[in-house]
Write a structure and sequence with these properties.
Distance between the termini of chain B: 22 Å
Strand order of the largest sheet of chain B: 4-3-5-6-10-9
Largest sheet of chain B: 6 strands, mixed
Number of helices of chain B: 16
Bound molecules: iron/sulfur cluster
Number of strands of chain B: 10
CATH superfamily of one domain in chain B: HypD, alpha/beta domain 2
Structural class of chain B: alpha/beta
Strand order of the largest sheet of chain A: 3-2-1-4-5
Structural class of chain A: alpha+beta
CATH class of one domain in chain B: Alpha Beta
Number of helices of chain A: 1
Strand content of chain A: 35-45%
Oligomer: heterodimer
Largest sheet of chain A: 5 strands, antiparallel
Helix content of chain B: 25-40%
CATH class of chain A: Mainly Beta
Largest interface: A-B, 47 and 67 residues
Number of strands of chain A: 5
Radius of gyration of chain B: 21 Å
Distance between the termini of chain A: 38 Å
CATH topology of one domain in chain B: Rossmann fold
Helix content of chain A: 10-25%
Order of helices and strands of chain B: HEHHEHHEHEHEHEHEHHEHHEEHHH
């Protein structure tokens, strides 16, 4: 029930006074209510739960965090070079 | 060592926001970093059943350095829906005038002597829907019937369930009602942390719950109980980055909330969704299956929407039920016992013949252990 994966908005329409959309989730299309993401545009990615789009995926943040992880790892920043606190300090 | 990253049926397709977070090389590097950072043992709980499923499927629990132990939390809605709600659902679904609608994974959850599938096989009109709006559509199309939706779940289903009720009220659809068993994560975390048996030193917070509620509400929990809380996602890189952050915070003695799921989670969450939840629901005490009553841990319909309350409409509020004494799922859900520590695990209790709800849902810890091997050495 809680495994929502990202889908891409293909089109929007109104139904019974609610803002709805067709969403492509890995090639399978599904319908979702867009009332909670009123600013979403066709082509954007969103998380869908129980038939509702709940959050537009922040593209800038997504590529930023991936880049950051890569860089941190490649720079060796994860190597132990500072003195670690001893357990009794914690 | 178990190979990392499963083959999926999508293999060959590039999937945006998924493939990058399944990159084995990146995952391996984060694993190494966790190994270097962890100077002592840490016990970390992932709250969300979806994360439990992903951790076991990807073998993350086995790839982690031995100082890091993951324990699995109560965040599976199917698992914590109390027995009395199941019994009430069964009574309502049996009625001739009712079309009973539910998310599919609730149908096999055992009540004291039956389940919704059995009601269906005996002639009950029980239908699986993916959204409460589908249930509302069925009500619109069947005005001569009473359509009931089983509104279970955590904060992730609350916006959908709230909107269905709100929309029914707006459209004047009076043959629609909801059987509400809606629960919330922060009170469950506090219950776990307050228990004398608690072993949890840091939390991975459930990414999609936080997408709606934000992570603001975890800040007082982190301060009060002196534990770090790290919202993260479901893919291996998300989970490992979340674990790395939690380990770093534990090592530094910093009881803070640090978001590791920035593409989906913000501090304040989805305000429109929170508003609709607050319009339709109010906070109530709630029974949790296997755990018992947790004060102020659930949502119930506000007075203005009480005509959509299936419990009242069908007069089933008096139905109570006791758990089977065999099932240890309460301890499993609180991270005190691993599923394979239960005497019935894999013997009397299997996904084909589940004794407890944690064996029914694929997000339940017992089913995840059964399906992904963590086991049979001792059997
Ligand atoms: S293995 Fe079965 S009986 Fe044991 S705790 Fe899990 S669900 Fe309950």
């Amino acid at each position: 029930m809680c495994l929502a994966i990202p889908g891409k908005l293909l089109e929007r329409f109104d139904e019974n006074g609610l803002s709805m959309g067709t969403i492509d989730v890995n090639g399978a299309t599904t319908r979702a209510c867009l009332e909670y993401v009123p600013e979403i545009e066709v082509g954007q990615y969103t998380i869908v739960h129980a038939g509702f789009a709940l959050k537009i995926i922040d593209e800038a943040e997504a590529s930023e965090s991936l880049k950051l992880w890569q860089e941190l790892i490649e720079s060796g920043a994860f190597d132990i070079d500072e003195e670690l606190p001893s357990p009794d300090q914690i | 060592m178990k190979s990392f990253l499963p083959r999926t049926r999508y293999e060959g397709l590039r999937m945006k926001y998924i493939d990058e977070y399944r990159d084995p090389a990146l995952a391996r590097k984060i694993l190494d970093a966790i190994g270097r950072k962890a100077t002592r043992r840490w016990t970390i709980m992932e709250i969300c059943g979806g994360q439990t499923h992903s951790i076991l499927r990807n073998g993350i629990d086995q790839l982690l350095p031995e100082q890091i132990e993951l324990v699995h939390g109560p965040g599976c809605p199917v698992c914590v829906t109390p027995l009395e709600s199941i019994e009430r659902a069964l009574v309502i679904a049996t009625r001739k005038e009712v079309i009973f609608t539910s998310f599919g994974d609730m149908l096999r959850v055992p009540g004291s002597s039956s389940d919704l599938f059995m009601v269906r096989s005996q002639g009950g009109d029980v239908r699986i829907v993916f959204s409460p709006l589908d249930a509302l559509r069925i009500a619109r199309e069947n005005p001569q019937k009473e359509v009931v939706f089983f509104a279970v779940g955590f904060e992730t289903t609350a916006p959908a369930n709230a909107m269905a009720v709100y929309q029914a009220s707006r459209e004047g659809i009076e043959n629609f009602s909801v059987l509400v068993s809606q629960v919330m994560v922060p009170p469950a975390m506090k219950a776990i942390l307050s228990s004398p048996a608690n072993r949890v030193q840091g939390f991975l917070a459930a990414g999609h719950v936080c997408a709606i509620m934000g992570y603001e509400e975890y800040e007082p929990v982190a301060r009060e109980f002196n534990v770090p809380v790290v919202p993260t996602g479901f893919e291996p890189v998300d989970l490992l980055a979340g674990i790395l952050e939690t380990v770093e915070l534990c090592e530094a003695g910093r009881a803070e909330v640090v978001n590791r799921y920035g593409r989906v989670v913000s501090r304040e969450g989805n305000l429109a969704a929170k508003q609709t939840i607050a319009k339709v629901f109010e906070v109530t005490d709630r029974q949790w299956r296997g755990i018992g009553l947790i004060p102020a841990s659930g949502l119930g319909l506000r007075e203005e929407f009480s005509r959509f309350d299936a419990c009242k409409k069908f007069d089933v509020a008096h139905i109570h039920a006791d758990e089977s004494p065999l099932c240890m799922s309460g301890s499993v859900l609180q991270g005190v016992l691993k599923p394979d520590g239960c005497a019935a695990f894999g013997r009397e209790c299997t996904p084909q013949h589940p004794l407890g709800a944690t064996m029914v849902s694929s997000e339940g810890a017992c089913a995840a252990y059964y399906n992904y091997h963590r086991t049979f050495d001792s059997l």
